[in-house]
Design a protein that fits this description.
The complex is a heterodimer.
Chain A: H1 2-17, H2 20-53, H3 59-69, H4 74-85, H5 100-136, H6 144-151, H7 153-169, H8 172-178, H9 188-197, H10 201-231
Helix pairs in contact in A: 1-10, 2-5, 2-6, 2-7, 3-5, 4-5, 4-8, 5-7, 5-8, 7-10, 9-10
Chain B: H1 2-16, E1 25-31, H2 32-36, H3 39-51, E2 54-60, H4 62-70, E3 76-79, H5 82-90, E4 98-110, H6 123-133, E5 137-139, H7 145-157, E6 169-171, H8 176-186, E7 189-193, H9 194-199, E8 206-210, E9 217-224, H10 235-246, H11 248-255, E10 258-259, E11 262-263, E12 266-267
Parallel strand pairs in B: 1-2, 1-3, 5-6, 5-7
Antiparallel strand pairs in B: 3-9, 4-7, 4-8, 4-9, 4-12, 10-11
Helix pairs in contact in B: 6-7, 10-11
The chains are: A mainly alpha, B alpha/beta.
Chain lengths: 234, 274
């Protein structure tokens, strides 16, 4: 218990001190995870919407596959991307291993199925409700995708936040492909793992508290924006 | 309003993209002991200041660090398992190997000392007693330099650890720090490098029980990854790092790293046969 108490004190101390190293780690965490969410959203949301409205052979299998991919172990995703990006691998000439870009790729791969599967579910429920109305405007199922995404934007905020949560909490994949290089690829979760390794449990826990505060902040911000937008009827 | 959220997201993405372009940098695959003991935190800024070359360290076990070099994912390999290093050089993956420094291993154990090894100088005899008492022993089990050294000691003790596996001999397959955390939690004996031990904070009941044996000597070596094998290797900058490590300035920087006044690594680049 004493450890937990001192961790909170240490966490506040860290935040208040405006420590340079910590700021860089926090900044990189946010950049990597938000970028990964953005890229995964570009792929995952349209795919989810398409699966919600379209009916084609193999659709059910695709839905099952996406649902299963939600449980993809990060360390496995990391390993596959490690091998692909390694100098001895197929994309080795890009020189991306042990860079933040590799971490973005790993997280995007991890969360794209989550965004697709969850948005499919959310939008399918909406589509069941609105299908007739949309069809009456003469919109075919493919053309309904942008409309559906726009009308479902408030529900999709939660989907995006779920993806962000998974991305920012993830350690296995970014450790493998990023290498936890100080000042370059060290993020909150890998820093926590490192401090745990060094046996500095209070500092590790304090970093955990900081991470939770950041995730809380991002969620509150998204929720606030969403409510504001909803109230304006935008 | 909602569009602005996406705009913000896009902005965050855009700032994430320009990642390269700063001063020149090299990637060094090294061991958890050099990183977690804080040595790199002390010497790298000195090197970077004098050469303007940034050093990016990926800290792994020695076996894995050498693998990263074999795949061409690092420019320099800086590890501590002389046999494995010489194999690496002989196979043409890099080299020549330069000796840099040494420290030593210590056997750490619980204050209760069930195997009665405290104060024993003979590390091989200490392991024999631990095995005889069937006292819990944590092994790194990760092909690291420390793991290799541990296995050599068991061999010298004439003990086949496979018989104790799952019972008193426990392989954790992790780095030095996590292995020490496990030993602390289970009140077990463990072989640790002194640097990581000195920097380790979660000791609980653990303390050094055996030290000072010649067989606990731990030599570090450094090699450039073969640029003929991997054309992208930053041979010039990597070689400058190696040259600096074995130069008087680098050796002095290594000797200058201390925790609580205790020196962790002892430079010996010029000792023949190191």
């Amino acid at each position: 218990m004493q450890d937990i108490g001192s961790a909170f004190a240490l966490a506040f101390g860290l935040i208040l001190s405006g420590d340079d190293g910590l700021a860089r780690i926090v900044g990189l965490s946010l950049r990597v995870s938000l970028t990964a969410v953005g890229i995964a959203a570009l792929v995952g949301l349209p795919l989810g919407a398409l699966l919600a409205v379209a009916r084609f052979p193999g659709r059910q299998a695709l839905v099952v596959a996406l649902n299963a991919l939600m449980g993809l172990p990060p360390v496995v995703a990391g390993l596959v991307i490690y091998i692909a990006l390694s100098r001895s691998g197929p994309f080795g000439s890009l020189g991306l291993l042990f860079t933040p870009t590799a971490m973005v790729i790993a997280q995007a791969v991890l969360i794209a199925p989550i965004l697709a599967a969850l948005s499919r579910q959310v939008l399918e429920a909406m589509w069941d409700e609105y299908a007739e109305q949309l069809r009456s405007f003469g919109a075919g199922s493919w053309r309904a995708v942008p409309t559906l995404l726009w009308d479902g934007r408030f529900l999709l905020t939660t989907v995006l936040l779920a993806g962000f949560g998974r991305a920012s909490a993830e350690v296995g994949a970014v450790m493998v492909v990023g290498g936890n290089i100080e000042g370059f690829t060290r993020v909150m979760t890998t820093a926590i793992a490192l401090e745990t390794s060094k046996g500095d449990l209070p500092l590790a826990l304090a970093l955990g508290v900081v991470l939770m505060a950041i995730v809380l902040g991002v969620n509150a911000l998204a929720q606030g924006l969403r409510d504001l937008a909803a109230r304006r009827g935008a | 309003m909602f569009r602005r959220l996406f705009l913000g997201l896009g902005l965050a993405m855009a700032t994430a993209l320009p990642l390269a372009a700063q001063t020149q940098s090299i990637t060094v695959s090294s061991t958890t002991s050099t990183e977690q003991s804080g040595l790199f935190g002390h010497i790298l800024p000195i090197f970077t200041q004098s050469t303007d070359i940034a050093v990016r360290v990926v800290a792994l076990g020695t076996g894995q660090a050498l693998d990263v070099g074999r795949r061409g994912d690092a420019d320099v390999v800086f590890v501590h398992d002389k046999d494995a290093e010489e194999r690496f050089v002989a196979e043409g993956f890099g080299g020549p190997r330069r000796a840099v420094m040494f420290n030593d291993f210590v056997i750490v154990g619980p204050a209760g000392d069930p195997a009665r090894v405290n104060g024993l100088r003979d590390s091989v005899e200490a392991l024999r007693r631990i095995a005889a008492a069937r006292a819990p022993f944590i092994s790194r089990g990760d092909r690291s330099g420390t793991h290799a050294a541990e296995l050599r000691l068991w061999q010298q003790a004439g003990i086949d650890v496979a018989t104790g596996r799952g019972a008193w001999y426990r392989e954790v397959g992790q780095g030095m720090g996590p292995a020490l955390n496990t030993a602390a939690a289970q009140n077990a004996y463990i072989l640790a490098d002194r640097g990581t031990w000195l920097a380790f904070r979660n000791r609980q009941e653990l303390r050094i029980v055996t030290e000072g044996d010649e067989r606990l000597f731990n030599q570090y070596g450094v090699m450039l990854v073969n640029p003929q094998r991997h054309a992208h290797v930053k041979a010039e900058a990597g070689q400058r790092f190696i040259d600096w490590l074995v130069s008087p300035a680098g050796q002095e920087a290594i000797a200058g790293y201390k925790i609580n006044g205790e020196q962790l690594f002892f430079p010996n680049a010029n000792r023949p046969g190191a």
